[in-house]
Amino acid sequence: MEMWYTEKQTESFGITAKITKTYVHEQTDFQQLDMIETEEFGTMLVLDGMVMTTVRDEFVYHEMVAHPVLSTHPDPEHVLVVGGGDGGVIREVMKHPKVKKAVLVDIDGKVIEYSKTYLPSIAGELDNPRVEVLVGDGFMHIHDHKNAYDVIMVDSTEPVGPAANLFTRGFYQGIYEALKEDGIFVAQTDNPWFKAELIKSVNRDVKEVFPIVRVYGANIPTYPSGLWTFTMGSKTYDPLEVEESSIPELATKYYTPRLHKAAFVLPKFVEDLVK
Ligand code: SAM
Fold first, then answer.
1. How much distance in Å is there from the Cα of 83 to the middle of ligand 1?
2. Is the ipTM of this complex over 0.85?
3. 129-143 pLDDT, tens per residue?
4. Catalytic: which of 108, 150, 155, 205?
5. Is the CB of residue 172 less than 8 Å from the CB of residue 189?
6. CATH classification of 3-53 is 2.40.10.120, yes or no?
């Protein structure tokens, strides 16, 4: 019998994948965690019924969280990743030559544990000696660390359950204070087709806290609508002023020095959301 997994993206629309195996189906202390094998996209991590990552297209999201912001800061030595327990963002951060130390704080130790077992190509750098992995609430972590990081990346689940307070003005204020005086942060900010209001409200909140706010996009086939946005808030450096020649040519599959500025050119209907 054929088995199909469907993520309902609205009450009347979803995406679906044929699955060949279920490795994990477990309710953790924080969320429903499923690790499944799909025929088209390989191993897939699903949390609370939402696709988090797949082996085939994960590189787009993880590169696009990590590299635009690391290329914008001239000296990104100390990096914090909030969420990101699958390790994909950390793998990309470790490619950057100037990063001395990265701290990852995910609330759910089970995501880290199962990603190491079933997603080794994604989680492989979590044991890098330059990485410190903490299990805890990212909201609390940023409030306990003032003036500590050059770059903060928010690789969280959608704003339900444990990540609900990671999409609030109070969280962005905490991030501002956890950053050094020329720090930058980036957060994944969902898709403009089904979450337009969220993108608008995040943009408004981040603009109240940071003087420079920029939104960029990427194409991710297994995420709702395929068009994903990221919001960057910066105290000093503007990603649009980065010289292409200053961006290191890294071992990436989506992000390049040429793509850096192009990613900030948004379709008109998305531009209108963040004006
Ligand atoms: N790429 C995904 C997406 O946008 O669909 C998200 C990646 S997934 C690894 C996000 C992680 O955020 C999960 O492992 C979850 O446990 C973690 N998370 C959710 N709320 C959190 C919080 N308050 N503090 C730290 N981590 C949190």
1. 4
2. yes
3. 999 999 999 999 999
4. 155
5. no
6. no
